Structure formats: C-alpha cells, structure tokens
Amino acid sequence: MGATEAKTVHSPALTYFSMLSLLSLCPPFVILLWYTMVHADGSVVQTWNFLKQHGLQGFLDIWPRPTAIAWKIIFVYGAFEAALQLILPGKRVEGPVSPTGHRPVYNANGMAAYFVTLVTYISLWWFEIFNPTVVYDHLGEIYSALIFGSLIFCVFLYIKGHVAPSSTDSGSSGNLIIDFYWGMELYPRIGKSFDIKVFTNCRFGMMSWAVLAVTYCIKQYEANAKVSDSMLVNTTLMLVYVTKFFWWEAGYWNTMDIAHDRAGFYICWGCLVWVPSIYTSPGMYLVNHPVNLGSQLALYILVAGILCIYINYDCDRQRQEFRRTSGKCKIWGKAPSKIEATYTTTSGETKTSLLLTSGWWGLARHFHYVPEILAAFFWTVPALFNHFLPYFYVVFLTILLFDRAKRDDDRCRSKYGKYWKLYCNKVPYKIIPGIY
Ligand code: NDP
C-alpha cells in the first residue's frame, strides 16, 4: 500500500511541503541544470549572475519551447521501446505477492531490449542514418517536452486509477494531491500485458540513461574528432551500471519502486524526466569539458567504479538469492543467518518472510546504498573539481537513499513489528557500518 504508507512516514506538514516543493521546483530545476551545463560552462555562478541581471523574464527566455523535432524524437523513442517491451521474447517472471494477494506476471526481456536499443542507435549513427548529435543539440527542447508531456501522463495515471484500475492494488487516499503525487495504482497496465511501470521506469527512464550516455560521447567525438579519457571513463561506468540494471531487471521488479511505490508523479515523472536529465548530467557536463586524466588515473577510477557497481549488484543478488531459495543457499561460503518474520496481510492472512542477517545484509540494513553512491561518485569524478554542478547527482542520490532507508525501515517496522526490532538489534546500523 505504497500511497498510504508513504504518507505516514513523515509528518503531514512535511509531507505536503516536500510534495508541493518537488512538484513546483523540479521542472524549472531540470531546465536550469541543462542550461548551466550546456550554455553556462557548468558554472552555477554564471547562471546565477544571468538570472540576477535578467530576472524572471531571463529565466522564461532560457526555457526552451517544446519543438516538433523534440516531440518526434520522444515519440519515436517511446514507441520503439514500447514495441520492444511487447514483442521481444523473454522468460515468464512472477513478481512478489502484493498486500492484497495479487501477483504480477512479467515478460523478462529487458536485456534483449537494451541490446537491440544500443545496437540500433549506434548503427543509425555508424551508417549515417541518424546522428545522435541532433538529440544533444535539441536537449533543452526535449527536456521541456518531457516535463509537460510527463505531467499530462501523470494526470492520465490519476484518472486511470480512478476509472479503470488494472488490479486490486489501487485506491484513493481521499486526497487529490497525495493521489496525484504518490499514485493510485501499484501495477497499472494497458491491456493485460503492457506494464506501465516497467515502461516508465525501465524501458523509458533507465534506457534513456544509456542512450544519452552514448549521445554525449558521440557529441564530444563529433566536436573534437576524439573522445577524452574522462568521457570514456564516465560513459563506460554509466553503461556498466545500466547493463547491470537490465541484467538484473527482473530483480528490480521485487524492489520498493515496483512492489511498494505506486505509479504517480513521484515515481513516473521521476523516471520519465529526472532520470534522463539529472542522472545523465555528469556526462552532459563532460561534452564541453574534455578533461584529460591520463591513462593511470583513468584506469584507477574505472576499476574503483566497476568494483562499486559489482558490490551493489552482489548485495541485491544476495538478498534475492536468499529469498528465492528460502534461505537454502550459501552466503559468503556459509549457511545464512536469518530471522523468520511473520506478518499479517491487509486481508488478514498470516505470512512469513525471511530476513537475511549475514553477508552484506549483516553489515548494515541498507549497506547496498554505499556502493551505489560511491559508483555515482566515480563516474562523476572524471569531471574533476572545477565546478560543483556535475556532483549534483551524487548529492541528490545520497539524500534520496538516506530518505529511502528511513521510508523502508518505517515500512518494514510496521509490517514485521517485533521481528524488525530483532533485526535492528542484530544489525544495528542503517547504512554505514559502525557510523550510521
Ligand atoms: P530493496 O527493495 O532491494 O530492499 C528493500 C526491501 O527488501 C525491504 O522493503 C524488504 O521488503 C526487504 N528486506 C529488507 N531487509 C531485508 C533482509 N535483511 N533480508 C531480506 N529482505 C529484506 O531496496 P531498494 O529498492 O531501495 O534498492 C534496490 C536497488 O536499487 C539497490 O541496488 C539500490 O541501490 C538501487 N536504487 C537506486 C536508486 C537510484 O536512483 N539510483 C534509487 C533506489 C534504489 P519485504 O517487504 O519483501 O520484506
């Protein structure tokens, strides 16, 4: 019950404040970030001075209007991804049982879609059919179109949740803003098999991250006839991360984003706009800043980044393997230590979940966020330290994941009660072992 739970995590005043702030501040922020990266040398001071001088009118002037070419790029890309989601073969995968006892079924074809997307995109460039620099040159218009288009899409989700919910995991909190922000449906679908959250989160959002990473690399190559080592490290690490994501996509369908958070502004607008703009921003910065690191430093950063991505993957893998085998697996070479946690579903049924208390999950209750944040740092650090803005994503991710750890702890505490308390006694640290 994502919507109602999320609402109770913070006080009502803080919930409203953060919702309204995000709703009103995120769209202009996306535009300002793009403007600063592309037209103001990545310098926040330069953008600030411009705004001080030209005021609101100046801001309106830099906000690009969505153009026909921007809409065309978005629709062709979206339609291509939707078609791949529907057509490509994949294994039948069942998601976790929802609070109302519903179990979603998926077609796990993410890795195939990822492969087809990148091969198609790079081939279009290679055979001179479509040049990705067109995407970079219209990036502001694309973000502008995405901002408005995704808002309309969230209104559609809100209306669909009211008039045609796809499953029993839906409903209104009784408050329009909360319903719009947190969403109405946990598993909205079009027809029987087109899962909207798989499309918005994975096939549009995460896929755009890889597509834009490649775009930035090609743009730098076309502008300078070579790609700097900093750009190579950044692009490689981001692509390794996104590859890991699609390799593990069926696992993602068991996480909070899919199994607990409903489809609303928070998740869907975030994946449709925030991921393509903010998550890719270190690469956006590097296009016009071809920093030369030297091969030794570049290699160190690359190896450190890959190690962090691997550890993050292994944390998720460990938890899922442990759950999949009902604890009958080896964790770091030994039988896992665990807690059998009983809970009651909304329909009054009593069920049991296993909580892993060894391996990565014995270090801290959300240790997997540490390598996630460090990996983001390593694909940003090739930008060096001339400007703060490339590090915005790392700072944002740190705040997001610390908040997420609190949201998840609160949800698990209310779900598992005394068993969660037992887990907290056994594994006292929330994220950073020995510190927090
Ligand atoms: P997960 O969904 O993987 O884990 C949380 C859930 O796991 C809990 O809600 C609980 O669910 C279950 N759980 C908690 N403790 C245990 C335990 N000890 N043993 C077994 N199960 C347990 O977390 P996230 O969705 O936050 O993270 C998934 C991945 O996505 C991570 O790699 C994370 O770094 C990444 N991520 C990246 C973000 C980004 O923007 N870059 C944002 C968020 C996540 P249950 O009810 O089933 O018990």
From TrEMBL:
Topology in the lipid bilayer: Multi-pass membrane protein
Q: Which UniProt keywords apply?
A: Cholesterol biosynthesis, Cholesterol metabolism, Endoplasmic reticulum, Lipid biosynthesis, Lipid metabolism, Membrane, NADP, Oxidoreductase, Steroid biosynthesis, Steroid metabolism, Sterol biosynthesis, Sterol metabolism, Transmembrane, Transmembrane helix
Task: Report the family membership.
Answer: Belongs to the ERG4/ERG24 family.
User: Matching PROSITE patterns, A to Z?
Assistant: STEROL_REDUCT_1, STEROL_REDUCT_2
The residue ranges crossing the membrane are 13-35, 69-88, 108-127, 139-159, 198-218, 230-248, 263-285, 297-313, 376-402
In its UniProt entry, what is this protein called? Answer: 7-dehydrocholesterol reductase
Q: Which PANTHER family match?
A: 7-DEHYDROCHOLESTEROL REDUCTASE (PTHR21257:SF38), DELTA(14)-STEROL REDUCTASE (PTHR21257)
Gene3D superfamilies, A to Z: 1.20.120.1630
Where would you find this protein in the cell? Endoplasmic reticulum membrane
Q: Quick check: keyword NADP in the entry?
A: yes
User: In the Enzyme Commission scheme, what number(s) does this protein have?
Assistant: 1.3.1.21
